[in-house]
Amino acid sequence: MDTEGHSLPSASCGDGRKRRVCYYYDPGVANVDYGANHNMVPRRVAMAHALVEKYGLLADMERLRVRPATEAELRAFHDDAYVRLLRDITPDAYHDGDLRDRARACGVGVPETDETDASAYDNPVIDGLWDYCLRYAGGSLAAARALADGSSDIAINWSGGMHHACRGKASGFCYVNDIVLAIQELLEHFERVLYVDIDVHHGDGVEEHFKRESRVMTVSFHLYDIDRDVKPFFPGTGKVEDVGEGDGKYYTLNVPMKAGMDDERYQQLFRPIMDEVMEKFVPDAVVLQCGADSLYGDRLGEFRLSVKGHAGCVSYLRSFNVPLLLLGGGGYTVNHVASCWCYETAVAVGKEKEISDEIPFHGYEHYYRDQGYKLHFTVPKKNGNKKDDLIDKIKQDALMNLAMLKPPPTTVGEHRPSKRHAINVKAHYDQNQDKEAKKYRWCRREDDDPMERLHRLCGEADRYDFFTELGKRKMSGLVNSTPSDSK
Ligand SMILES: [Zn+2]
Hints:
Elements: E1 21-24, H1 27-30, H2 43-54, E2 61-64, H3 71-74, H4 80-88, H5 97-105, H6 129-148, E3 154-157, H7 178-187, E4 193-197, H8 204-210, E5 216-223, E6 252-257, H9 263-281, E7 285-289, H10 307-318, E8 324-327, H11 334-349, H12 389-403, H13 425-431, H14 435-440, H15 450-457, H16 463-476
Parallel strand pairs: 1-2, 1-3, 3-8, 4-5, 4-7, 5-6, 7-8
The structure holds zinc ion (ZN).
């Protein structure tokens, strides 16, 4: 890993490399189906997890096994009416005229009259929608709490990162904005939170919510192209002039790019800009949305990043040794997405140099045929001048905005939570009067899936040894016993 001197010793890692990492994965999220022709395939998270597991990376992380988010937790950002809609809407209930109207008003559902409006299909009424939202939001909240209570240095939820969801509206395949919820949770314990978005699309939902806030800085690197014949590249926002408002002025930074960005050009922007952001904003925690649609060959994105180029952003931010929340996001060529998030998990635990480039036999290997069964798929070289004046211009504009940033706000005379205020997570749940939270308290979501439950009882055994081990435990009656280590 290239730390470039930023790696600092910490209580957990004197060598500046190792981090305490926790990881959330819930098969219930991965099984959701947006529809046959939809670009969003949540199964990509299961594919990434299968690779993570096969490469042996689970042994280097603590698994976060948590309850889903509660309605009350969603309402910390989302409108009551929108939360009720997400709770009530099902493919069957959608036939009810009233519910259909409510859904359509919130950007959810298929149009009946204008079948040509493809954007209306972005956020379909899917089976298990409510459960899906609660689970991925619960994962991001739990990951944020693991950073806040000081038990982890890096927390990962590849099923999160839904950056387009608005307060009262679904957008861009996103229903609940788990990022806003997680940042709000972090703000309870940290003074300043930095949000960085490397999805090919602008992180509009997160920016919109925090654009007047000086304790949260949002930085989005994205494709911005509004000069298209039909319609601008989604969502059509995120120009460099958008710098936030009021107290939050200059705490919003947009880095709009053109199609075709490769590793070299991307890093020519990312590193100097992030250096300046880290120096001027001095965040206490960083949230990195790792949307993988900025990779080469994405079905929707138009960048040319390799896995290493994309992961370079993760390793660079990791090197500052500030509590780091890694979230997923977009990504529509599923084999590329899974390769990337697996490799970035390896970066998080400091093992990226140790994992093989050969995709191991793990049940999904046939999906990697087009990339020669290699973790690092090939990005064809493009001829052209390496010197790009446009890159210089974008960098200059961004740095000029950053030059306007005031020094870090102080706590003098203001009520702010103390820096790195530690919380006791168990006590947090015990004191929680929310009935829903109590109902789900310490519920392990894998318990919903008998296969996952058995797998866990066998101690995360290698899949090849799993059935053998299972047989042995059945013989000894362990499978039917209650897990003793639940928390
Ligand atoms: Zn995207």
